[in-house]
Design goal:
Catalyzes the reversible isomerization-deamination of glucosamine 6-phosphate (GlcN6P) to form fructose 6-phosphate (Fru6P) and ammonium ion. This is Glucosamine-6-phosphate deaminase. InterPro entries: Glc/Gal-6P_isomerase, Glucosamine6P_isomerase, Glucosamine6P_isomerase_CS, NagB/RpiA_transferase-like. Keywords: Allosteric enzyme, Carbohydrate metabolism, Hydrolase. The radius of gyration is 17 Å and the shape is globular. Strand 9 (about 195-200), helix 7 (about 205-210) and strand 10 (about 230-235) form a beta-alpha-beta unit. It starts with a strand and ends in an 8-residue tail after the last helix. It is an alpha/beta fold. Helices cover about 35% and strands about 15% of the residues. The protein has a single domain (about 1-255), classed as Rossmann fold (3-Layer(aba) Sandwich), CATH 3.40.50.1360. It has eight helices and ten strands. Helix 1 (about 10-25) crosses helix 2 and helix 2 (about 40-55) runs parallel beside helix 3 (about 80-90).
């Protein structure tokens, strides 16, 4: 697993945006897997800046959603479809038809999960998947003890995750849905490049367990250790509990400038 320690969230955003721009130069129609929440926002902002300056071309890019709440009405501002449209698709000037996502309001949610898993494969697979990490080590909405071979499916959110997400619902946990559709860990691991971002001291323990601990379903993000091209981008606070932080800094410093992440 490649670990890059950056000074702050904005530096991480620029680093990942540059990686996406390079990917799109090699493969203009790349399928980009996006995550929601506050952590990846600097990536989307930096990528939008590259598009506006002419340093990135997203005109043929496609976007894939990582997860979705179950039961929110169509058009709800905190549905992840609405969030991705607002924070990624619209700023980048993409056509909404380039957007793949699960239907959290489907009458048959299980069928919607299976349909989305097939849609990702039919689209050729995700080229680069952005991931955040929960304070309990979850990725997507794969909570602790999720199967490392799991596919896109329905999950019940833990109380801690609902507490963490209440800030998006006027700090009212009663408004946070209990269930979600999420890409499974097995589905996520099929992406060609995984990029996990983490900022803040509250993520430090989860980052340390995921990077330096054993691969275990109790820490879902530890499954990234099994991937041939996984990059973890963390700020100094999120890296504060890494025993090998000095090694990671030295390894990154010695990497050729042209290689990137």
């Amino acid at each position: 697993m490649e670990v890059v320690i950056v000074p702050d969230a904005q530096a991480g955003g620029r680093l990942v945006a540059d990686a996406i721009a390079r990917l799109l130069r090699r493969k203009p129609e790349a399928l980009l897997g996006v995550a929601t929440g506050s952590t990846p926002l600097p990536v989307y902002q930096a990528l939008t800046g590259l598009v506006r300056s002419g340093d990135a071309d997203v005109s043929r890019a496609r976007i894939a959603q990582l997860d979705e709440y179950v039961g929110l009405p169509a058009g709800h501002p905190e549905s992840y479809r609405a969030v991705v449209l607002r924070e990624v698709v619209e700023p980048l000037g993409l056509d909404p038809s380039a957007f793949l996502g699960p239907d959290g309001s489907a009458a048959d949610v299980q069928a919607a999960c299976e349909e989305y898993d097939r849609a990702l494969k039919d689209a050729g697979g995700v080229d680069l998947q952005l991931l955040g990490i929960g304070t309990d080590g979850h990725i997507g909405f794969n909570e602790p003890c999720s199967s490392l071979a799991s596919r896109t499916r329905i999950k019940t959110l833990t109380e801690q995750t609902r507490v963490d997400n209440a800030r998006f619902f006027d700090d009212d946990i009663a408004q946070v849905p209990h269930h979600v559709i999420t890409q499974g860990i097995g589905t996520i691991l099929e992406a060609r490049h995984l990029v996990l971002l983490a900022t803040g001291e509250n993520k430090a323990e989860a980052v340390a367990q995921s990077v330096e601990g054993p691969v275990a379903s109790l820490v879902p993000a530890s499954a990234l250790q099994l991937h041939p091209h996984a990059t973890v981008v963390v700020d100094e606070a999120a890296a504060s509990k890494l025993k090998l932080a000095g090694y990671f800094r030295a390894t990154w410093a010695a990497k050729p400038d042209w290689q990137g992440i």
